[in-house]
Prior knowledge:
The structure is a homodimer. Chain A has helices at residues 10-13, 20-31, 46-59, 77-84, 93-105, 153-169, 188-199, 226-244, 256-267, 281-286, 305-312, 316-322, 327-340, 391-411, and strands at 2-8, 35-42, 62-66, 89-91, 119-121, 125-127, 136-141, 144-149, 175-184, 205-211, 214-223, 248-251, 271-275, 296-302, 345-351, 366-372, 377-383, 420-422. By secondary structure, chain A is α/β, with parallel strands linked by helices. Chain A has 3 domains: 2-171, MoaB/Mog-like domain (Molybdenum Cofactor Biosythetic Enzyme, Chain A); 175-251, Alpha-Beta Plaits; 256-422, Maf protein (Alpha-Beta Complex), CATH 3.90.950.20. In chain A, strands 2-1-3-8-7-6 form a 6-stranded mixed sheet, sandwiched between helices. In chain A, helix 3 (46-59) packs across helix 4 (77-84). The longest helix of chain A has 21 residues, at 391-411. Chain A is elongated. Chains A and B meet through helix 1, helix 2, strand 2, helix 3 and helix 7 of A and helix 1, helix 2, strand 2, helix 3 and helix 5 of B.
Amino acid sequence: xxxxxxxxxxxxxxxxxxxxxxxxxxxxxxxxxxxxxxxxxxxxxxxxxxxxxxxxxxxxxxxxxxxxxxxxxxxxxxxxxxxxxxxxxxxxxxxxxxxxxxxxxxxxxxxxxxxxxxxxxxxxxxxxxxxxxxxxxxxxxxxxxxxxxxxxxxxxxxxxxxxxxxxxxxxxxxxxxxxxxxxxxxxxxxxxxxxxxxxxxxxxxxxxxxxxxxxxxxxxxxxxxxxxxxxxxxxxxxxxxxxxxxxxxxxxxxxxxxxxxxxxxxxxxxxxxxxxxxxxxxxxxxxxxxxxxxxxxxxxxxxxxxxxxxxxxxxxxxxxxxxxxxxxxxxxxxxxxxxxxxxxxxxxxxxxxxxxxxxxxxxxxxxxxxxxxxxxxxxxxxxxxxxxxxxxxxxxxxxxxxxxxxxxxxxxxxxxxxxxxxxxxxxxxxxxxxxx
Amino acid sequence: xxxxxxxxxxxxxxxxxxxxxxxxxxxxxxxxxxxxxxxxxxxxxxxxxxxxxxxxxxxxxxxxxxxxxxxxxxxxxxxxxxxxxxxxxxxxxxxxxxxxxxxxxxxxxxxxxxxxxxxxxxxxxxxxxxxxxxxxxxxxxxxxxxxxxxxxxxxxxxxxxxxxxxxxxxxxxxxxxxxxxxxxxxxxxxxxxxxxxxxxxxxxxxxxxxxxxxxxxxxxxxxxxxxxxxxxxxxxxxxxxxxxxxxxxxxxxxxxxxxxxxxxxxxxxxxxxxxxxxxxxxxxxxxxxxxxxxxxxxxxxxxxxxxxxxxxxxxxxxxxxxxxxxxxxxxxxxxxxxxxxxxxxxxxxxxxxxxxxxxxxxxxxxxxxxxxxxxxxxxxxxxxxxxxxxxxxxxxxxxxxxxxxxxxxxxxxxxxxxxxxxxxxxxxxxxxxxxx
Lengths: 436, 436
């Protein structure tokens, strides 16, 4: 059972909007065990829409279109699909009523053009739209189904979930289930070599997806039930974890920050951040996670040395002798914010994000990350990105490395190779001024 | 001259990721005056990739592929396209060197699989990738061009802008030029009504693109030269600015933070942030902008009241009487961080991002934003999102509103309706401890 997603809209071809509908539908269809082998985008043009539709029908059992159901003149999906199937457009009275009620309810004036939205191919299955004015519909012919959905994601989404899923259930002979594993620190090419044999497997399949210095590994199997599919995935998932070692950081989790917050919640510990080149991004990422207020109270963005000294108790001598971008400063930032914030763990990040500020000795991409728990302080020197590399990339990888080192310290894993252990540095003013 | 975008990647068909590359390329091609009539997505499957490529070549002059150039086994774009054109893959020594240098520089171990990335179709035009390891390339045959680009947007974007644009310029008979205007604060539907007549225009065209509480307005015209095209756009651009009023914040700029940094650089002033619910996101957004170190020295993330009091001098009585999420606390946070950081402007943000923590009196989405320059302090009460709305959305809009209020204060524009002016509050410990 193959499905195909056909988006209709010149705004997509012009790059005015991103085709998020395709992802939403692909995801939903995969969950139903329906394969998607093609996604296509065409403009509001009858000839090209007809060609695209005929091609889709020639290779797929189900075609889902998005867009072109609106009231305006360039919304031609309904008419064109009816034409391809040789059907008349007939007014659906129930849809007409829904549209009238919608305008009444939202207190907006209904234009005559909106009546056009109630004109549907004869003998179609109507998909009532309670989230907008354009009803969806299904046309079945010669064992194929064409499902028309409106373009606005806030209408398309609920229509798919609440109207199309029940309709498609009857086509779904199996369920596809996946286990997602994430790792940080092993480059994609090395992951490939580590897991090469497993990636050749048919059931389950193992596919890597690299993004921003991380690799997500998706183990997928198809079976009669979700439980069976997951049971097929499990042994491979465990083998992948074993091979990734401490770089593996979570199953079915979304991010390093999610894992760090969970670990802190379990241990009832608190963390604090002192950030220079990342400028608050790391605290910002941690606080994306709801519940982070239990484990995070204080972050300090110390862009200026003055602030590193005054707010983080970094010694002036350290800044003079070693500079703001140094192992020593990173360590004092980590310990300084830990003490100041009365947290269990402190993280310090200082580096050169670029594009300016680099020297031969300290190039753009040089970043020091330190984590401290008051007993041990671990510092890592990183050289991130490359010549053409973007500021945003250096910053993001810096904060990812900081979150990964924090994760390792919190759950008691060894730090990455090349990390140096030092005693927590003596601070300029070791007394916390909280409460006194 | 027609181009077609062909994305290769099973992760797109599974809905793991959104095809943002297609929008980026469509947008860039439109600017070059090259029409895009089709976008297609296929998986990492040789047979279907060959079919898709042949179809694309049958109807388009230029085919741009994204993805499938990585080191892993399921990256098959290079091999498959070489096959379709009957060419051998030959090792490009320069690309090999670039890849080796990349690994040497980042101190990572290079696997044999990375050498695969330097294997390119014979007689192709190599597009050197300074942003990653996979070079792009162009294969020209029978008057058609196939341009292969890597999938990661961070590499694909600069490769297109810096390598492909110059290559494509020779195909372009006319130039499309655009003026992009951005506004914050007027909802999309209102913008539609304000600019309805202008949006009906043919040359220039005016298209709105709404995202995360902002609307970008793109005015586009086609002409023989860029100058002519821009001259056609200019009158409409000026009319749009007039109608948007103070909500308009920049021409051909990327973000509110960019405009704030520029305004501060011009005035040689400094800003500081005190963030609660946004958790450092606002400082993180400001420091995305290179050069921000000139205007930003200190940000404090005060998730706990303890920290608001101790680091920002927010009075304990204020926290007791009005709570952490209140006009009074926001004002004291803004003034507190301004004084502590010895900055010209201070920004305070406190609110309830959710999903938890809401009450009938103080629901999720209630946020107070304050900006102070030491003479005037402006506080705004916001009720962001709605019942179903997400933590990330509330946080992002909170920081956007803070940046917009800062922009208005810095360049001397009135604050949005509903903003309250108060005298800068007296702080618990008004002495700055910097330097003394």
